Queue: 4 jobs
Job 1
Amino acid sequence: IIFDLGAVILNINYQNTIDEFAKLGVRNATTFYSKKVQTDLFNQIETGMISSNEFLKALQKETNNANIKQLEKAWNAMLIDLPEERLQLIKKLKKNHTIYLLSNTNVIHINAFKKQLGNKRWLAFIKLFDKIYLSHELGLRKPDVKIFEHVLKEQKLKAEEVFFIDDSPQHIAGAKKLGIHCHHLLDNENIIKLFPDIIL
């Protein structure tokens, strides 16, 4: 089973960041950044092509001279919380399945997520997965089929034996091109409901 992180395991709210960007003077914040559409700047940080500092400096140009700290806070505003019940679900699934994490993310968000959890909970979190794949470390991001091919090849997995859960329809479409079984998690859905027998 391959899990996405944001909006699947970790609760996130894209609107929080869009609202914060708007407050800092970013024009047309919704078209500048959203779940479905992002400018190339966001692709660059999520594939590790630019550093955190380069990203924040570029972002700064879109604002009314906001400082770097304000921008970092706005960018991290989307990160909400990590429900314990989802971690317990993954722990139970791990008894009979190999579990992977595949996330489009970046250094700023991962560092904020680690800080939010604290060292002990972060270490417990990474132990839940047989392997964690992060876009900024791989230089690839979903929905590019190459990122899925990389995971399948490295883990010697057959596409038809893999179940992938993600909240973005474009990522699901990318995985389906390789024959991976997918579930598109809707905004009002919880991964707990996908495995009722495991919870009981």
Note: DSSP finds twelve helices and five strands in the chain.
Job 2
Amino acid sequence: MGQDKALLTLGDHHTFYARICAKMLFVPERFLSVSPSQDLQAPGYTVVPDQHPGTGPMGGILSVLDRFAGRRLLVVACDMPCFTAREGARLLSLHRDEDALVPVVAGRWQPLAAVYSPRMAPLFREALNRGERRLRNVIARAHYRLVTVGEKEASNYLNINTREEFEELRRKFPLL
């Protein structure tokens, strides 16, 4: 991408991370995972520096799980600017005490917009100690459940990874 995706903005000039944070205010305990190079903040959020820098999303999720006191943590990546509060609430309502509840869109797991139990922390820690960073592999060793996402809700999981995807999003949704 060539720049920090959290700081990308759309037509309303809100950054991707601020957009997600504003939508997730319904969650009682909120955390913002940041890399050591980021200086991000959001009202009502506890900023959690990544204690495992360079390990990708798993390190950030583990850093938050280590501070989390609840029984289920909704994780939403900053590069999913179309993710809605409604979809977040739906995922939380579907959680039945699994270690992980993972949405599936068109056959693809979405572990960066999923619900995790604190019981995942030791599994993530062990994986990182072994040098493993693929969330799906670690989740597959846990008590997990997959939830199929219908076509109507699939846009929640639009993940922006390239400049081309970002420009396409701006064309499709100029007022976002």
Note: Residues 26 and 85 are 8 Å apart (CA to CA).
Job 3
Amino acid sequence: MQGDLTLLSAVDAAGAIRSGVLHSEKLVTQYLNRIDATEPVIKAWAHLDKGEALQQAKDADIWRKKGRATGALHGVPVGLKDIIDTVDMPTQYGTPIHTGRRAESDARMVERLREAGAVIMGKTKTTEFAYLHPTDTTNPHDATRTPAGSSSGSAAAVAARHVPLAVGTQTGGSVIRPASFCGTYGFKPTRGVISRTGVFRTSVSLDQVGVMANSLADAALLTNSLGCYDQTDPASFAAPRPDMLGGALAEAPVEPALVWFDLPFFDRLDDDASEGFEQVIEALGGRVECMPAAPQMASLTDVHKTIYDYEICQNVRPFEADHGDALSGEMTEAIARGKAITDAQYEDALGVKASAEAFFGNLFEDYDAILCPSASGEALPLSAGSTGDAINCTIWTLAGLPCLTMPLLVGANGLPIGVQLIGGAQEDDRLLRTAAWMQNALVSDLDEKD
């Protein structure tokens, strides 16, 4: 195969490697060349060993030539957020407190990637402890702007074509918002689809794993490869996982029904984002029902914050005594807020969380997906000192619902703005099928207007 191989989809690259049309070594070499050319500005990587990446690719090629079984991601490069344990490279959590830290075993999802034949390229940068304090990663579309967080490096690496696939995590909006800012697809499946064993814990109740890719099918392929039951993860469920790739490639048997809730925090949307969503709703016509959000739904953002502050305090507070000077202001403030939350307030919040899960379980009997912004607009300038506002993601993360952002809008400065769809729990394949339908419907509308 000739030309720029970094433009290949992961689905096509994996198929070409399995059939012998493409060598993993050639593919990985082109990605490494692209990293060499752009990484000094983008700064997506916390750890990257080029020699080790090439050796993995060579081993994948030898394995295939011997006629042995190949996995769904055989020879395809993947980046991992720097809170995911690997035995052969450091995992440092985005903090100097853990510089050079080495895990004793791979995270469960890393075992799944190795089983699928993936080339694990390295660790992508994360905000401090996957929370709010920004890293130095820049947005590939505009180096003066943030890639968002906390999965900053994963989104930037995919958008810059350093890798076709990357793994991130989301406790608030840390997959969906970076994907929106960087113009990639971001998919957070139902809570419990992907194991969190071997991933730094900020919140046992809220932490979830997601992926970034440059196409819907690629995001589905990676999620299929990562998903499994893990009895050591309290969120993991012992049931078959939805076929993500099958959903992404399927045609909707009937036109899906979508719902748009008019949430009070939508007044935070930038004007171009607000206008863009009006155009999307208009283009989809009668398939979108717009309705006011009940006050109880809007208040779920506060419930999410209570749980998050309480639990991140429990997980990071042990570092405060010996490493307080190394913690950011954002982290010390979160610890202080967590200390102020009583056990009773925390238990009440968990009860509301359970009620929200039940409510959304009934909602998707009538609708295929919720339509919602992924972020408040385009990527913020780095000078703002913020990775952006997660408010558009927290309700759905609280309820553990599958969420997908697609790079369908462009803002006033020519930067991407994502469109988010939220589906029913464990109906991820249905959500991806609805997303494919929506993309096609919007393209058809544009063609008619042209």
Note: Residues 428-449 form the longest helix (22 residues).
Job 4
Amino acid sequence: MKNISFISCLFLLLIISACTNGDNIENGNKPPEGDQQKLLTVAEIDAQIKESFELNGTFDWKDTSNQLLWSAAIHGNNILTVGYGAKDESFSFEKSNRLTSIKQEIINTIKTTASVTAKSTEDILVYEDETLNYIDVKVSDLSTVAALRKNSLIRYLEPNGYVYGTTEIQQKSSSGCSQSGETISSSDYGTLSTGARVPWNFYDHNINQAWAYSKGRGVGVGLIDTGVSSNQPYLGVKCDDYYGGRYIQKYGTYVDSFWPWSKKTDGPNDKCGHGTSASATIAAPNNNASQFIGVAYECNLISYRGTSDVVLNGYHERKGVSNALKALGNRSDVKIISMSIGYMWSIGNVKDAIKYAHAKGKLIFAAGGTSTSFTNWYGVIFPATMSETIAVTGVEEQSTYNECDTCHEGSKIDFTIIMERGNNHHVPVLGFNNGQSQYFGGSSEATATTAGIAALIWSRYPSWTRAQVLQRLKESADFYPNKNNSFGYGNIDALKAVRGY
């Protein structure tokens, strides 16, 4: 099937040969004497990351040696992302003198430990976030990394310019992209009286019956993905043709450049296809043109092109997603954020931005992970692992629960959506180009569907809080009040969610 969302890039772990694992600096260990000044190669760095996954099932830069962190920064354009402040002080609405002092101390440490003397702040500071408590700096010396790690007011140090498995990931991180139309089986949809087509899984979740009570009107859903196609009028000039009174807005925060200091974004338009499919799942309009309809077809959609594909492996992808989260967090008309994107391990500046949006009252849905079938052993990916997000995965259409062929499961999952049939067909959606349709699957489709159902609830109960909407989702799901260790509360009944019984 085309356009299965390959969010997790864990398949890369099988590519690189293993070598010695990094030493745990938190326990005071150092690389062997004589080797500690050696710049590790990309292959050596990747091998240590791979071994961490094999031994521990996870990876975190805080658990690596100074040597590994420094080497990764050097190979990533010398960029080090530094989260500062007290523990969990991810953001500040206004930078205090204390935070400004900590930031300056970090810069002074880099100046005094750099082998090249008289470095100016302009040479060091690549980016300073006005809201989140992090900066991107240029480093060149191992001694700088060692000194920064001694600062108790630094929350994290991450080489965000470094790309794990560089060659292979560039080839495979676009696996969730598709712009080709597909022929949709007539058994995979129903038809409304208007002529609009209803995807088969809407009937499994009683979404079509929920429309008698709510269609999502008045609720803003923010989508952070690869953007929306400029060639699809039903997610553009025709988004409001049938009923009126709704809007779709498109923005871009992704910078398509190898250089971290580049600032010009490449606009809001999708060049992948994944974001268009996710947008269509949530908000494709009712229509009389035999086009597929979205879950909350009267909601307002605010799309951000924050990334080029579904795997957040690049500096500008991480920064783009972080900036999109802040922008959506600041909008009073946005209540829900949907993110069918992710990565194998936690990313500090994205994590900070999620905490910011969550503090602003947003209900944030994140995909549990989708990859090739031979990496399904891996659990839920970031940011669905965070307590501030609601993790969703996809399951098959059958009487017993079974994750889709490429979906991840685990104790972090909160909800499931049926998105794969026995014939391996996924969910038909509005296509990338006008007049096209295509199949969309994985936890990406499941996440977008859940965000749409949440919009139906919030539209019917506009005075409700995030907690009340989430509670109603739980009450409508199969396993409630219990939670399954692999599938959370299970499949959602949209009719029960909006009606309440």
Note: Confidence is low (pLDDT under 50) at residues 1-34, 167-173.
